[in-house]
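Handover notes (outgoing to incoming on-call)

Open items:
1. Type I restriction enzyme, S subunit: sequence verified, structure written out, both below. Nothing else pending on this one.
2. Nothing else urgent.
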Amino acid sequence: MGALYFGTINVRSIKQTTGIQNLDIYAYFSEVVPFPEKEIQKSIADFLDRETEKIDEMMKKVETQIEKLQEYRQALITSAVTGKIRV
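Type I restriction enzyme, S subunit structure tokens:
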């Protein structure tokens, strides 16, 4: 619905007489909205699945690196406090 509004597809079915927008339900439901063919929709969905999987893997790697850095930081602090290294 938001995409239709921002794409100005359903603007014709919006009536504004008193400063408040009203939706002409009959005009709204008679609007023609283009959709890609099923094969194209499936290829887009498959592409998005692959790309989000890559992003998820990168996020896991970053989270692992953050955890290792936190452990390293804690080890450095412990070593400095116990006198094992000189600061």
